Amino acid sequence: MPLRDTLARVDADLAAGRVPMARQRLRGLVSSHPTDLTLRRRLAEVYRLYGDPAEAGRWAYLEQDGDPAETAAFEARYRTPARRMRALAWRGPESAAATGFARERLAEVRTACSEALGRPVDWDTVPSHEPVDGGGSGLGGALAGAGCVVAVLAFLAVWVNGLVALFD
């Protein structure tokens, strides 16, 4: 479906209160046209209707007049440069961006990701399978491991108790 027709459907969806459908259509358009800043701006507006500042900030991240609170919410949700690169869903070189601000913002995120990973990355090879937060180490990883051990021990205790009761 042509871009103009899909945007007309988005407008009709919003007028009829079908915000989830409008969001879905706009997400599809941004996926098909990742360098179109106008589509990203429209998607940010829809997320504002949802009251989701992090997603509004995500899609308005390349706008010079973006809301600083939304930008901060986006950066807090997507803490690492690699996660931000994936979340921005940009494809192609930064030079494809329509504004200087967007080109600079994209270059900053890509450069930060390259430095964090210790190797060059670009928008078409965004890292997706690399540990971007230390590989799950730390307190969260330790608690998850301890929880697994407790679950296995509880299962074994029930199993052994059942065997003892069976032969008793």
TrEMBL record:
Entries under InterPro entries matching the protein: DUF6584 (IPR046491)
Keywords noted in UniProt: Membrane, Transmembrane, Transmembrane helix
Pfam families noted in UniProt: DUF6584 (PF20225)
Transmembrane segments: 142-167
Top-level taxon of origin: Bacteria
Name of the protein: DUF6584 family protein
Organism, as annotated: Streptomyces chilikensis
